[in-house]
Every structure is written in C-alpha cells, then in structure tokens.
Write a structure and sequence with these properties.
Elements: H1 26-37, H2 41-55, H3 59-71, H4 75-88, H5 93-102, H6 107-120, H7 130-143, H8 147-160, H9 165-175, H10 182-185, H11 200-212, H12 215-228, H13 233-245, H14 250-260, H15 267-283, E1 287-297, H16 300-309, E2 313-315, E3 333-338, E4 357-364, E5 373-378, H17 384-395, E6 399-412, H18 413-418, H19 430-448, H20 462-466, H21 473-487, H22 496-502, H23 535-548, H24 551-563, H25 573-578, H26 587-603, H27 609-621, H28 625-638, H29 645-655
Antiparallel strand pairs: 1-5, 1-6, 2-3, 3-4, 4-5
C-alpha cells in the first residue's frame, strides 16, 4: 500500500509525512513507495536521484534510495548512500540501521552501528531496516564467539519482529538448547532504583533506552550517575548487566565491583562472580590444543590388517565420509584405539574393565604427491604417550616415521580433565552405561576437579581457594555454572557433595513464602521448596523453566502439580505429565503417565495423537505388540492428517524398522505394508525413538574430546 501524508515519513523520524522532511514531495513519495512495492527498484532509484537534484538532500529520499540499493544487492552504492545520509542526519535511526546492515566492519563495530540506530529510534517508530540489520548482527556475533551479545540481540529481534515466525523459532531453538549455559539464557533485568534516589529521573531514562535495546546509550547514562553516587549497588549492577548485554570485557570487572559492594556469601554475589567468569571465558578461554600426529606408512594394507586383528582397536564400519574432492580423498578406514583390550560382552561390565578411547586413527592411501599415512588424533590433552604406545604395540615396525605434529582444535582444560571416553561392547545394557557414566562423573568431580589449576581460579586449585574466605566465591561460582548446566539435561544432577568435600556452603532449599518469584533469577528456581508454592506460583515457575529447558526445576514443579487436586489454570497438563516420563523407572509407570497425558489432552479438547506416538515404542518394549498395533491403526485412521502427525508417524515407523525411508516395507518386496505386524526384537530398550528426543548414541560412537559437537559448557 502506497504511503499517504498521514503515514510515517520514510526517513524514520517517527513523524508523519505531513509534518516531516517529505511534506513538500508527499505525492512523489506516494508514487515511489507504490513503485517499490511493485519491485520497480531501478526506475525508483532514477526518480529519487532526480528528486534529490530538485529538492536537495532530504533524509526521506536517502532512506528510500538505501532500501532500493539494498534490495537490489547494490551494497557498495548503498554504503555510499549511507555516508551521504549520515552527513545530513547524523542522528537518524534509519541511516544507522542501513550502516549496520551493509557494513563490512568487524562485528563489534557493526554492533555499535546497530546500537546507534536503537538510540535514535523511538518506541513508536522502529526503522524498517532494523530487523534485517539485527539478524545479520546476531549471526556475526555468534560467529566470533560473543554469545552474550548474540543472545541479547537475538531476543531483541524476537521482540521487535513479534509476527515473524522465523525470528520466534530461532529464539526458541536457542532458549531450548541445553548446550547453552542457563546463566546465559536467564532473564537479567535492570534493578529498580530506590524511590527516594536523587538520580531517579536520569535512571528512568536509561531504563527506557535499555528496554528498546539501546544498551550503549543506557550504559553511558548509568556510568555518569555512578560518578555522583559511588558505591550505589543498583547502579553497579546495572552497569554490569548492560555490559553483559553487549558482551563486553568491561563486564568482568563490573560484576566484581558489584560483588565487592554486597554480601560476598550471598546468592547474588555468587551469580555475579559466575557472570564475570563466563564473560572472561568468552574473551579469554582457558583452552589447550588437541594434537594430531601423522606417520608415513609403507604397507598400508598390512597396517590395516594389524589394526583389524588387534583387540586394542575398533573399526568404525561406516564413518560416513564424503568423496567430493578428488584431490583430497577421504580416509580409507577409521579406528578407535583403546587403552586396554576390547571386551566380548558388557552385560556385567565394571568401571575398571571398560576400555577407554585414547585416540582416533585415520588411514589414508597413497596420493600423487603424498605417501600413504596414518593420522592419529588424540582423545585427551595429555594423551600422547598413551596413544602412541598403543599404536606402536599394534603396528610395531610397520609404522613409519613421525612426519608431522599439528594442532587441530582447542578444548577447555576442565572439560578435558573431566571427560570420559568409554568404548562399550555392543551388548552393554543402556541402564548400565548410564549408571557407569554417572559414577564416573561423580568420581571426576570429587577426585579431579578439586586438584585442577584453572584460569578461573587464577591458576590455583579449588582445594586451595576453598580455604581462602575472600576468594572461595570463585569456586562457588564455577560450581554454580557447571551444576545448572548439568541440571538442564539431568534433573537429578546435584554438586552439593563437591561443596561438602571442599567445605563450602551447601545450596539448600529456599522457602518461597512471601517471595515475589517474578523477581527471582531463573537459576534459583530449582532450589525453591515447591511444596510451599501457591498454585499460581507453580504455574508461573513451570512456564519460565519450560522456556529455558531447566529440567531439574521442571521435574520438581511438575511432580508437585500432578500431586495436587487443585491444578493450575491455563497450563497444558498433558505436557506436565509428559515432562515426567524420563523420571519413571518402569514401562508400566511411563504408560500410566501417558494415559493421564492423553486424558488431559482430551479434557482440553486437544488431540492425544502425539502421546499415542510416544506410547507405541514403550508398548513394544513391554512386549505388548497388539496394543502398539492398535495405536498405529488408530493414528492412521483418525489422526494422520493432523499437523505434524504424519511426519512423526512415518519417522517412528522407520525407527522401528517397519518401513524404509522411501516408504516401502523394510522387509523388501512382498513384505507386509501394514504396521500391525511388529517384531519386538527389532528394537532395543536403549535405541527407541520417541517424539522430541534425539537419536541415541551407539556403542560405536565413543565420546572424544576432539568432537566438534557442542557439549557441556564449563568455565575454562
């Protein structure tokens, strides 16, 4: 729809065309906007240039020309247009949005341009270019590792582009990704100023700017206020928060300045130190390089035979290498080397018996300009001796000379020290693997963590700092980061046993009586005594924790909700029941929860189909194949056309081995096409897909420190 005189002026001032720079050319602006909506950009640019010659440098014309240049991909011309625009209107929000969108500068400078745009914008008028500018900025910030600024600007995009499904989904994907630290995702609002503070008016202005996302401008105001009110905790915390929004190194000291002004043993102080550590980790991580050792090989076939025959090597049958580059062919084969012989069975395996991966080995054939070779990627930072010893034991004199040693990736020192790389036999029960992994994790935190010298501890150990009442807060903060990260995946995770060993204050349950939980940080929600929460408090906290995937708090609150007769209103009770499935130890208990979830869905006039899908693999594992077949037939007959159900249903059939990816029966030609005939032996307890879960890791995929998948974030 073409602009008229009562629409906002294209310049982005927030004024109507009738009262702005476009008032004398309102008819021309109407024609231009109509032409641009019709994608007549080249003609529009010519018309704009003619109008600039006739009427002079009007901001509205520069704004329209900038949009036309950007839309047609003329970025060099767009940058020149922005330079001219800013000369005549240095405080124009649209001009700064254009600069942020088209700039080739490093991400921090682009962030400054976006911040200028938000500073000069108004609550009523956000320039058209802001959303694409911020979207590009978010990608740039994450690409250079500035997760704090990337996340805060991502929330801004979602807030501004409320009707954008893409922006909302990207935000939700980030919030519900348990690989991102909980402290990074939690709400961090600026504190409220005392009612009688002399600096209230200026602070209110800073808060208005901050709510709009103009954090740099707000920071300037608050820093000026602190000069006249030194030591004021509200101002100190606000400075720390604003620096954190921007992902600036200055936030490290800002949080510690705030900590020094409050009770050093308080939860607020520990969280402040945790933010300081995370910002420091972002800019100066405590990492070291994993090495790759390359050996020449004369007889590659013999080396491969030796590896296949050795009990210290496990061949990965289908590593999935591509072969798109003829000049750099993929490895011929891939092996995992272990510190002890492979086991024939893992049915009753103990911790001491499990072989651990010490390296990943790649075999490369002879190339035109290169001999055949072995590439050995170490599994741990200090694992060279163990890995080379195993390789020498297997290959002996067939291993050629060491050709090269190179760094391939960096891993956090603490993550590497606590890592465990078991290679389980294929028949190891899933429950046993999980139990052994949990035992190893606990042993690592008890025995290894206290003795590590870490950058977060200024090169000292947790044992040393725990005896220093001034600096033990560093250990408390590190444990808080690790613990809350673990609790996003494992609702049972609790590091109080580590605190007890180090003589630190334990994190005890908190009484929510007379507490305004909306003012409580998210990381504390897992500690509140749910039995003392009101029904409204339960609903409020459950929804908050669901958004950020805080599993420990979700489970605790959900258990309390289903135990009460008085259920919260406006809460999806089916999801509440479903959130507890992983906490049940038997299939009978899981089926009981699913039955309640299905009934809750029906009571709320919702389809129970998604819960029927989750029930099918549990029925199969229980041996009740008839019920599983009935459920499949019911879904096909009554629910298959519901949104998302067809996709989930056929994915489930593929996971169960009933159909192939192309939809044909898995048994080949002539196999039954109906899902009613199920072989219970086709699935194992540890390998059953359910909607909303990831595919399980098999025993052929040992964990390795050099893995490029995101893992648990811990302070380095």
């Amino acid at each position: 729809m073409a602009a008229d005189t009562y629409d906002y002026c294209p310049c982005g001032s927030g004024n109507k065309i009738k009262f702005c720079c476009g008032k004398d050319i309102s008819k021309e602006i109407e024609n231009l906007t109509s032409a641009m909506q019709g994608e007549q950009y080249i003609a529009s640019i010519k018309s704009i240039e003619q109008l600039l010659d006739e009427h002079g440098p009007l901001p509205c014309l520069y704004a329209l020309r900038g949009i036309a240049f950007i839309t047609t991909g003329q970025f060099e011309a767009a940058r020149e247009n922005i330079d001219q625009f800013l000369k005549i209107a240095p405080e124009n929000a649209t001009a700064w949005a254009g600069r942020a969108l088209t700039s080739e500068d490093e991400p921090h400078k682009v962030m400054e341009y976006a911040q200028k745009c938000l500073e000069y914008a108004t609550d009523e008028m956000i320039p058209q270019l802001v959303v694409p500018a911020l979207q590009g900025l978010v990608d740039k910030l994450f690409s250079v590792g500035n997760a704090f600024a990337g996340f805060s600007h991502l929330t801004l995009v979602a807030a501004i582009a409320r009707n954008s499904q893409q922006a909302t989904m990207k935000m939700l994907q980030f919030m519900q990704n348990p690989d991102y630290p909980l402290l990074l995702k939690q709400r961090l609002p600026m504190p409220t100023a005392p009612a009688d503070a002399a600096w209230n008016e200026a602070y209110d202005k800073a808060q208005v700017l901050a709510r709009r996302g103009a954090w740099m401008a707000a920071l300037d105001i608050v820093e000026d206020l602190l000069e006249d009110a030194p030591g004021e905790t509200v101002l100190l915390k606000s400075i720390a928060i604003l620096n954190t929004y921007l992902g600036l190194e200055e936030g490290i000291q800002a949080w510690r300045n705030y900590t020094a002004a409050i009770d050093i043993g308080s939860d607020a102080a520990i969280e402040a130190e945790a933010y300081a550590q995370m910002l420091n980790n972002q800019s100066n991580p405590d990492v070291q390089a994993i090495q790759k050792l390359t050996y020449t090989v004369d007889n590659l076939d013999l080396v491969q035979e030796l590896l296949v025959a050795s009990s210290l090597a496990r061949m990965v049958p289908d590593p999935g290498f591509g072969n798109d580059d003829p000049d750099n062919p993929p490895p011929r084969s891939l092996f995992v080397l272990t510190d002890k012989a492979q086991l024939e069975t893992g049915v009753d395996v103990t911790m001491e018996q499990i072989p651990l991966a010490v390296a990943t080995l790649y075999l490369f054939g002879k190339q035109t300009d290169r001999d055949a070779r072995v590439e050995l990627v170490l599994a741990n930072l200090d694992g060279e001796d163990a890995a080379t010893s195993v390789l020498q034991t297997i290959c002996g004199d067939e291993l050629g000379k060491l050709e090269d040693t190179s760094d391939i990736t960096e891993v956090p020192v603490l993550a590497d020290a606590l890592s465990w790389n078991p290679v389980f036999p294929e028949d190891t029960p899933q429950e046993l693997m999980q139990q052994l992994s949990l035992t190893q994790r606990e042993d690592g935190f008890c025995d290894i963590f206290p003795t590590l010298k870490l950058q977060a501890f200024d090169g000292r150990t947790a044992e040393e700092l725990a005896l220093d009442f001034t600096h033990r807060i560093k250990v408390q903060a590190t444990l808080l980061i690790i613990e809350t990260n673990l609790q996003c995946r494992d609702y049972q995770a609790d590091l109080n046993y580590v605190r007890e060993k180090l003589g630190l204050v334990l994190l005890e349950p908190i009484d929510p009586t007379d507490v305004e939980l909306s003012q409580i940080t998210d990381v504390q929600l897992g500690r509140y005594d749910v039995t003392k929460m009101s029904t409204d408090q339960l609903a409020h906290c459950y929804q908050r924790c669901l958004v950020i995937t805080f599993r420990k708090a979700i489970v605790g609150i959900a258990e309390e909700i289903i135990a009460r007769d008085d259920k919260p209103q406006h809460l999806n009770l089916a999801d509440v029941y479903g959130s507890l499935l992983e906490t049940r130890s038997t299939n009978e208990e899981r089926i009981e929860l699913i039955e309640k979830a299905k009934q809750a869905a029906l009571d709320a006039n919702q389809s129970p189909a998604i819960w029927m899908l989750r029930e099918i693999p549990i029925r199969i594992m229980s041996g009740d194949t008839q019920k599983a077949s009935d459920l499949m037939q019911t879904i096909e007959a009554n629910h298959i056309e519901e949104p998302g159900i067809r996709e989930h249903f056929y994915q489930l059939l593929m996971q169960l081995g009933i159909i192939n990816p192309d939809g044909s029966p898995a048994g080949g030609p002539g196999a039954p096409a109906q899902p009613g005939i199920i072989d219970p032996s086709a699935t194992q307890a540890g390998d059953v897909w359910t909607p909303g879960t990831q595919e399980p890791q098999t025993s052929d995929q040992p964990s390795a420190s050099g893995d490029d998948k995101p893992g648990l974030w811990i302070p380095d």
